[in-house]
Amino acid sequence: MRRWDFVAAYLQGELQDGEVVYCHAPPGYATQGADGRSRVCRVEKPIYGMAQAGRRWQRSLFPWLLEW
């Protein structure tokens, strides 16, 4: 096998225990709560564009490749 094509590979990674990541709400979602404060979203899985996403996915994939 020479090449693999991974669809949505970044979603297969896991954030480390205790790692908490927040981002701004995407367009179309409420950006302010009823109290007037800005809302943010807590990220549960690494997503494309996050600085940590590639590393988290690699951390999930590498042990599997070693066993294979």
List keywords for this structure.
68 residues, alpha+beta, two-stranded antiparallel sheet, elongated
Question: What features would you describe in this structure?
Answer:
With 68 residues, the protein is of the alpha+beta class. It has one helix and two strands. It has a two-stranded antiparallel sheet. The radius of gyration is 16 Å and the shape is elongated. The chain starts with 20 loop residues before the first strand and ends with a helix.
List the helices and strands and how they pair.
Layout: E1 21-24, E2 40-43, H1 53-67
Regions with pLDDT < 50 over 5+ consecutive residues? none
Proportion of residues in β-strands: 5-15%
Structural class: alpha+beta
From the alpha carbons, calculate the radius of gyration and give it in angstroms: 16 Å
**What's the total helix number?**
1
Net shape: elongated
Give me the side-by-side strand order of the main sheet. 1-2
- Element-by-element helix/strand order: EEH
The overall pLDDT average reads 80
User: Approximately how much helix is present in the residues?
Assistant: 10-25%
Between the first and last Cα atoms, what is the distance in angstroms?
Answer: 12 Å
How many beta-strand runs? 2
What would you say about this model in short?
This protein is α+β, with helices and mostly antiparallel strands and 68 residues long.
